[in-house]
Design brief:
mainly alpha; about 80 residues
Length: about 80
C-alpha cells in the first residue's frame, strides 16, 4: 500500500514540475516578449531575459545539466 502512495507522490511531483516548466516556457516565448515590446525594452535585454526563463523552465522540468544545453541551443528564429 505504501508503494502506491510513493508512486502517486512521484507522479504529482513530475506533473507539478512539468506544469511549472511549461508555464515558464510559455512566458519566455510569448508573454515576456510582448510585455517587453510594450514597455520599450531593448532586444538584447529581452533576449537575455528569454534565455534566463528558458533555463528556469529546463531546470523545473528536471533537466540534469541545469538547462545549460537547452537554453544555449535555443534560438528565437
Amino acid at each position: 500500500m505504501s508503494e502506491k502512495v510513493l508512486v502517486k507522490s512521484e507522479q504529482n511531483e513530475k506533473t507539478g514540475s512539468l506544469l511549472l516548466g511549461t508555464g515558464l516556457a510559455f512566458a519566455a516565448l510569448i508573454v515576456f516578449p510582448a510585455v517587453a515590446t510594450r514597455m520599450g525594452l531593448g532586444s538584447s535585454l529581452t533576449g537575455a531575459m528569454r534565455i534566463a526563463l528558458m533555463k528556469a523552465s529546463s531546470r523545473a522540468t528536471g533537466n540534469s545539466d541545469g538547462g545549460v544545453d537547452a537554453a544555449s541551443n535555443f534560438s528565437c528564429h
